[in-house]
Design brief:
CATH topology of the largest domain: Glycosyltransferase
CATH architecture of the largest domain: Alpha/alpha barrel
CATH class of the largest domain: Mainly Alpha
Largest sheet: 5 strands, mixed
Radius of gyration: 26 Å
Number of domains: 3
Strand content: 5-15%
Structural class: alpha+beta
Distance between the termini: 92 Å
Number of helices: 25
Strand order of the largest sheet: 1-3-2-4-5
Length: 610
Amino acid sequence: MRPRLLLPIFLLLILLPLTVSGNALQDSDSPYLAMHGDDPVNWRPWSAEVLAQAQRENRLLFVSIGYFACHWCHVMQRETYQNEAVARYLNEHFISVKVDRELNPALDAYLIEFVTRTRGAAGWPLNVFLTPDGHPLVGMTYLPSGRFETLLKELQGQWTEAPDDLRRVAAKAAEAMRGMPLEAVPEPKAVDVRRYETILVSQALALGDDMSGGFGEQTKFPLAPHLGSLLAAWRHRPDAALKEFLTLTLDHMALQGLRDQLGGGFFRYTVDPGWHTPHFEKMLYGNALLAGLYLRAAQAFERPDYAAVARDTLDFMLREMMTPAGGMVASFSAVDGAGDEGGYYLWDNETLQRILDRQQLALVQQVWGMQGPPPHEGGHLPMMQMSLAQAAKMLDMDATVAEKQFQLARERLLAERGKRQLPVDHKVLAGWNGLALTALVAGARQLDDARYQQGAEKLRNYLLSALWDGQRLWRARGRQGELGQATLEDYAFAAQGLLDWAELTNSKADRQMARRWVDDAWRRFHDGSGWRLSDQTLLPGGHGVAMFSDSPLPSPSVVLMRTAWRLAALGDDKALRQRVLKAAASDHTVLQAAAFEYAGQVALLAEIVK
């Protein structure tokens, strides 16, 4: 009888690690990595050791990249990475690596480029298989569990039968991504820069949505860097069509589903072209950039309502994103504490009727369009359908009474929403906090509210005390300490924010520190081949690039060069000015074809080439 008893016990011991022991991510200070700590996949953090292990064992690497607030990252975890059959196959044949894209943006950018080139589009979760040499082989975004398992088996079969062929294919693809050394081009003249601005505006209007503003026919991202560059172009040469497009875009972003009408702040993007249905994650960088954009647009177009949107956004950041220590958290999840996408923000009719009285319910239904069958599974999302004055008139309600009742309705809704759970990514990222510092300084200058300067001071102090060790910046700080090495993005955005603060407060010491960060970044991330996002990607390297394009984040090379230009002007530093001119003008002729993609570079040249 004893051998029969030992067999099931032996099998249980084999299966037990897959179900209860967790993996190397279990105690990670990154909320995104930690949430995968109980997956049966034997996840490893990205490191030189996993590359060495892959080479030693001749196994393919599976690198999966995402971030805490990402809806589809949660879906793929639930469907695939918690599937024990998939996990067992991964553990047997691959070395599986989980990466928080917010801690390793350079690796993320490299693999995003690979998937974009090979698939035509990319996003998150980003899943890429690499050879043991570190060359990307095949990549994709979300896949249903069944298709993913089939891909695993096909890929492993090919690796077993013809590994040398796969190595050659991957090495060839990596070589194609290396880029080319910078070529000498004539220095741009003012006439060239004016032409680039004209091309930028023309391309933007051609790509723009005439009905709802913004760019795209399906999803809509609030491309704040591009819109900011277009606003700068309009200020140089006012154009009626451009103004109409910019105000159309700003109006729709502020009034529809991209913005949280109840609690303030913007979501990351919408899944439809009309700005109605957001993916419900809120990112620090997006809110910081949009607050600054609306402040500049308020001045340019003399629109007090845009200033009110900026104020509302800054208030949200101070109230909900700033930690007691003074830094701001990275994001809020799209998925609420119950696991429902958008559940934190949505309202079913029963809840509305329970917490609001008759007048309050009538007002919010009219103002925010919250009547009839809910358009989302979880209920209604408040969106501006009419002004409060229009609603009061429609309901035959005194304006003063309507204002009081609407405010009471907001308070009751916020109190009810406060009982819900919204998971937070508590990482404090240097670069994103640099953008937040810039936004708060702009608010302090323009909105005559001491709270914004006080918040900016707390954030400035956090950057210098918690993320700067006297020799280098850290990428982030979590609850257990420093996280990751700073990138070009961190140095550029933090230096810009600190210089903004120094100019607001006339602080010589902070101006000097901003200069040090600029110099450190230039030394670490720029050479004769151009700019690099990081000097520690661990993957086979290549040439730098002449300039980085804008994305939902501004080009870090542009931000660094603009900050350096401002410092040169403050100190009458001719050598620094010349360094910026040389770097900014490098390979500028590409702007003739891709001005929209490099909108920030166009705006920078317009500032410095006269």
